[in-house]
Amino acid sequence: MALTAWRTFVTVCRLGSLSAAAVELGYTQSAVSRQIAGLERELGVPLVQRHVRGVRTTPAGEVFLHHALATLNEADRAMRAVRDVRHDAPSRPLAVGATPSLAAGIVPTAIRRLLEAAGPLRWSLLPELSPELHDRVIAGTLDVAVVTDAPPGVPNDPRVERRFLGMDEMVVVLPVGHPHAGHGPVHIQALADETWVEDNDGSATLLRQHAARAGVTARIDLTAADLLGKMALVATGHAIALIPGVLAGALRTDVTTVPLLDPPTRGIYTITPCRDAHPSTAPLLDQLATAFGSARPGRAAQRQHPAKRWTDRSERP
User: Fold this and answer.
1) CB-based contacts of 204, cutoff 8 Å, min separation 6
2) To the nearest whole number, what is the mean pLDDT of the chain?
3) I need a surface site. Which of 4, 141, 174, 177 has the fewest CB within 10 A?
4) Of the listed ranges 48-62, 77-91, 152-166, the one predicted with least confidence
């Protein structure tokens, strides 16, 4: 399949309109339609549905869009790498991946320290879940990935080298003014009546397992698309959530954290390909170990905020 049609499809999805995509790309609308139809013939399924206001993706189109974006991104990186070689630019960029919580804190810190110690370096950071990061390391599109063994974890794969960074204790994130805000470790039973929000199956599994061991049920009534959405629902008082301890220092200011008694934990690891290591891989691994140690996962001080009276759910923001 030609990447031209892939780019056209991505543009149509972004704009939600064949005509708007045609204008942006400099094609006729019929040319855009032919490219989309060609993709659909090759794949054997419809990718978009026409409606009065434009087009929307089908379930198959959503799946294809995810992979098309990744493929086009890698194609663009390949083009830039070839141009860099032609112009005698330094070696290939360092491609780093990390789970969203680690990409929000310790990984950028480690990269900053690497740059301070080693000088300028082209690099990229891809937030993704652990199984997808493992696959990208195997495929050769990532030089380093920082992953966790939270469900579903990552396999023991002989094609990658695994390095243990440490254990991360999960904590509960609450809206500012929640009755438990600012207090010491709480038992999960004290939160049995709360509404919880989760954004991925791994965190939800850890929460359910922890609650089950205590003989209670965690009501995960809300689902967020990502970590930002999860924090927004907590900040506005709709729910509370379980989050990694390493994330506590990077939270927005209208939420706070409280530790759990006997909290659930997850192991943090780096995985790298066994061959063709990037020259900056080894020093980055050392910086990641240092950054993780400095973060004191699960034991970070609770964020302190002015007290705000909050007696029942009707008073929540």
Assistant:
1) 198, 220
2) 86
3) 4
4) 77-91
Compute CA distances 68 → 10, 14, 264, whole Å. 7, 12, 36
- Binned at pLDDT 50, 70 and 90, residue 300 comes out as very low
Q: Which of 178, 171, 203, 169 is nearest to 255 (CA)?
A: 178
Six-digit token string for 227:
């970590």
Task: Identify which of 173, 295, 285 has the alpha carbon closest to the alpha carbon of residue 246.
Answer: 295
| Cα gap 149→58, rounded to integer Å | 33
Whether the CB-CB separation of 281 and 272 falls below 8 Å is answered with yes
Q: CA–CA separation, 114 vs 51, rounded Å?
A: 51
Task: For the chain, give the number of residues.
Answer: 317
The dihedrals phi and psi of 127, each to the nearest 5 degrees, come to -80, 130
From CA 21, how far away is CA 261, in angstroms rounded? 54
Cα 226 to Cα 241: distance, rounded to the nearest angstrom: 12
Tens-place pLDDT, residues 56-72: 999 999 999 989 988 88
Q: Round to whole Å and give the CA distance between 270 and 42.
A: 38
Cα dihedral 301, 208, 166, 160 in deg (nearest 10):
-140
What is the model's pLDDT at position 306? 37
State the DSSP string of 47-77: -EEEETTEEEE-HHHHHHHHHHHHHHHHHHH
Per-residue pLDDT tens for 85-105?
565 545 678 999 999 999 988
Measured CA to CA, the distance from residue 136 to residue 71 in angstroms comes to: 12
Token readout for 194 is: 């709360």
- Dihedral sign, Cα of residue 108, residue 198, residue 231, residue 247: negative
Cis peptide before 279 (omega within 30 of 0): no
